[in-house]
Design goal:
Elements (H helix, E strand, L loop, with lengths): L1 H22 L3 H16 L1 H24 L9 H25 L9 H5 L1 H26 L2 H8 L2 H20 L16 H9 L5 H12 L2 H24 L24
Helix pairs in contact: 2-6, 3-4, 4-6, 4-8, 4-9, 4-10, 7-8, 8-11, 10-11
């Protein structure tokens, strides 16, 4: 019995490790993914802020669903709820994650990343993409997909594909100027102001939801969206990756200087 009790967890770890190696084959990317996962799991501050974003997002979602009852045709009401839920959760997920990534877990420990940055910068940034996109897809697409299929039928496949293309483009747009490794840069309190400004985009989300819903029920619009959104994502993603080679990661956040020098001295 003792042998069986000890061997079972080992088999579970080997099974999980095999899946992890398949999803993230590069050791440097694995190290960053584990670092990010442990950063979230071990920091009460980050979990509290994430729950705050989640609670606010759920409140906006419920109020929006109640407000759309008289604005959407009954035949499209269920699809409209899924579209609106996906768009709202996507907005809060991206805004919240970008904010959390800017708050250090243990700032004094970033020296290890600073001295090895030249060897793994590209892989580290790819690992950040994998981490956010994998857990984002699992939480917003894979987990609710069986329920969506049951309520919408095969239209759920179209809605998920359309939202996935839209979500990828939104991720690239929000992280286009990202030049840090999460949890390793000093933090300016002014980031709260940036987060509040980002919440201003919530005013655009009902219009975005309406456009995506119209695409689901119009074959020409749906085909055009599935052509334009992935093509735009490929272009933006390629441009962002081209800059990784010359990009220097930031480890110290500082306010803009009051007077900018001309940099005439070499």
């Amino acid at each position: 019995m003792l042998v069986e009790g000890v061997s079972a967890p080992r088999k579970d770890r080997r099974w999980f490790g095999g899946i992890f190696d398949w999803l993230v084959p590069d050791p440097r990317q694995q190290a960053v993914v584990v670092f990010l996962a442990k950063g979230f799991a071990g920091s009460g501050q980050h979990r509290m802020i994430l729950m705050g974003y989640g609670g606010f997002g759920v409140a906006v979602l419920l109020s929006g669903m109640m407000g759309m009852l008289g604005l959407v045709e009954p035949a499209r009401a269920m699809a409209a709820r899924f579209v609106y839920a996906h768009v709202i959760l996507l907005a809060f997920l991206l805004i919240g994650v970008r904010h959390l990534f800017s708050i250090p877990v243990e700032l004094k420990a970033n020296w290890l990343f600073q001295i090895t940055e030249g060897e793994g910068r590209r892989q580290w940034l790819r690992a950040v993409d994998r981490f956010v996109l994998f857990f984002g897809a699992a939480g917003m697409l894979i987990v609710p997909f069986p329920l969506e299929v049951r309520l919408l039928g095969w239209r759920a496949v179209s809605e998920s594909a359309l939202f996935a293309a839209f979500g990828l483009l939104c991720y690239e747009g929000l992280f286009a100027s990202w030049e840090k490794l999460p949890f390793t840069c000093s933090y300016l309190p002014g980031m709260w102001i940036a987060a509040v400004q980002l919440f201003g985009y919530l005013a655009l989300l009902p219009a975005v939801s309406a456009i995506l819903l119209a695409c689901l029920y119009n074959g020409a619009m749906f085909a055009g969206a599935l052509l334009v959104l992935p093509a735009a994502w490929v272009r933006v993603h390629a441009m962002r990756r081209e800059g990784w080679g010359e990009l220097r990661l930031r480890y110290e956040e500082a306010p803009e200087p009051a007077i900018h020098g001309l940099n005439l001295l070499k």
